[in-house]
Input
Amino acid sequence: MTAFRYALRVFGFVLFVAIVVYLPFRISDFRASEFALIGIYFIAILGLNVLTGYTGVISLGHGAFMALGAYTTAILVADHGMRDLWTIPLAGLLAAAAGAAFGLPALRLSGPYLALTTFGVAVATPIVIKKFDGLTGGSGGINLFEAEGITGLPEFIVTLPGGKVLSFNDWLYYLAWTIALVLFAVAWAIHHSHFGRSLRAIRDNEIAAAASGVWLASHKTLAFSISAFYAGVAGSLLAIWAFSVQPGAFPVDRSIALLVGLAVGGLGSLAPLAAGAAFLVFLPQLAQGISKAPGVPAVIYGAVLIALMIVLPMGVGGLLRWITGPLTSRLYPRS
Amino acid sequence: MPLLELEDVEARYGAVQALHGITLDVGERQVVSVLGANGAGKTTTLRAISGTVRRSGGLRFDGKTLPRSPEAVARLGIAHVPEGRGTFAELSVDENLKLGAYTRRDRSGYASDYEELLKHFPWLAERRDQQAGTLSGGEQQMLALARAFMARPRLILVDEPSLGLAPLIVKQLFDVLRAWIDEHGMSALVVEQNANVALEHSERGYVLEVGRVAVEGTADELRGNESVRRSYLGY
Amino acid sequence: MADVLQQVVSGIASGGVYALLALALVLIYRSTGVVNFAQGEMAMFSTFVCWELLDRGLPYWVAFFLTLAISFVGGVLIERLVIHTVSRSQALTVVTVTIGLLILLNGAAAWIWKGEQRTLENPFPSDTFDVGGVVIAAQDLGIIGVSLAIVLVLWAFFQRTRVGLALRAAALNPASSRLHGVRVSWMLALGWGLAAVLGAVAGILVAPTQGSFDQNLMLPVLIFAFAAAVLGGLDSPIGAVVGGVVLGVVLNLVGAYIDFFADLRLPAALLLILGILLLRPNGLFGRSVVKRV
Output
């Protein structure tokens, strides 16, 4: 990377952080809550990208790791009186352990088989949660409104010197995005590490990578585990954001949504994945805004998604790479 | 009028230009060979004709401009035996031959051609139901030729039939090709590294160097050419 | 024992439906290399089309075959208009497009048919036969018969016809197929059309067994079809059929006789499949692909 491009990257990151910090001053309380949700999705999609973007493995089961993170936080806060903030890393670590435990045997499978197996896990998640109702509260889930460990209670209000009032939604926003930016930096570091290069080598050619001394199983398992960590953290934040967990909050749709967010944001990109997260939050709203007749929002959502994939097969990230890439690669597109 | 005419044909793979203006022709009932070193553009020339690489320039078959898609080219009566033989490894030998004849509709013609094929390749009969992928390299190359024959094309494009095969089998392959072409009034354009065998079975030849025609002439002229002899014939 | 046999027969019947949808998945996977997440919704849509035709007074079998024809055209159109345009992109893009189709078709059915519960006419009598103490429902026999007939017709098409051969060839070696004049991209569209027909049959067979149905009819069936296809091997049509039937029978037996699993049939099935995949990573009948560097 040339010094200029490096400077451009740093500038871009600083700008990104500045926008994130400043945004709540410009938007309503309600919007702050939505943007907090975008931050949460962003984390989960960043994690999915570690797996899919680097190893080429498509997982449809990351909603299950989110559920694991969410329930870890909910149970620790509601039943053990723990403070919500401390449960976030624990949720991530537990999900990471589960990711490794699932990944170690499952990564023997090739792409589509693994994708469908993870899909099965996503389908089974709400059923299994309901079955173990002693721990999970069954279909009703766990309510955190009354729990003592919750930091961002609805009464949470802080008035800043400038007269700006920070509500509990702003608190959730900053919580989600602080963690998102830290994990974003971690993802960037992974990308540029020796480990990241090994992962990309696996994606491009498993056999050649193995022949060059990359130990496939350990790398893939670690990638799976890291991506599960991200999903666990996102799930934990989701529980704090919603003040509750229910099995219904983790249907197959959520796992599928993460994959859609990744595809829209652009596989292998980092910052543009935030656009994928925003897509997940705002497109359903836009569709609802056009018509509320049964089925119509889904038709709009599906049609926009398909059109987007046709126009931008590499997602928003692909578009940005195309714009900022060297001129020659545009004139002579590969194949 | 020649059966196939190429005029100033260019082709590229992405940013890399492989053909810098090839001009050649193949007459009716002729076998023409294309010689040259690795990377000279021999395979690309065949691909340009069959439409499997992007090309520009004049390409005419029987006086008409060649279409761009490989399917359409095949339907005009050009059979391409590609690099790597294009074997349908999971299908049976019989099914491979049937695919060769995919574009033709006359069942009786297929049957009589099949009988004739057995005279050249008698082993085909006992291997009919065997998976084509289990054949040896030489057998797969013969099968590839046989598939092309079964299409009853007017022109056969053959890419390096000798690759990886024993000299005896190479000679047999060329003999069969020559015999079949003479018998059915077809033409062939053969890309070959083994210039000796190729010229022995051809009327004319072209030598390519870095995507251009360097030398052309009858088989005898090429054999007599000092630099061709030294570079490609090895004596 | 008679009790067990009874469970087996009804298991084969539901397995037959899984097999049809699994076969559709395999067909598309083999030709396009993509797992089609919209397969179930395509089948659901076809089922609504059949309901609509019957509602307008067409005789049952006329509506049945007309639905198959419409589904075929629909499948071809989906491939031509949507899948074809992204077919050269990375797998994630194509998978996302099929997810988009899933959402779109589900919404479209809810929109057109108002999201209400419908009842599809049952072509089979509600009689039961007693064969040596084993009670067999005519409906189960009917479903098994129709599934079997469809599988045999499809098998004959692929093994005995010129187009069927070209379709197989196009899936196995597209480049070489084109050199032989096979219009590969139309073969892919044909594959989608046939998959849509298989799905339509599955939907029309399964809908009456549910009593009533809405736009969410096929989602559970699709999940079992995925499981069946993975179990049998994604590239193996025989595997899809065997996988579907085995899954149907096992699910029925597990659900009926192991109390703990009564409401955990799905996770139990997944666990079983994961176990089998760990021993045979390409399913029971799938071939392992030797990769070249």
User: Anything to note?
Assistant: The mean pLDDT of chain C is 89.
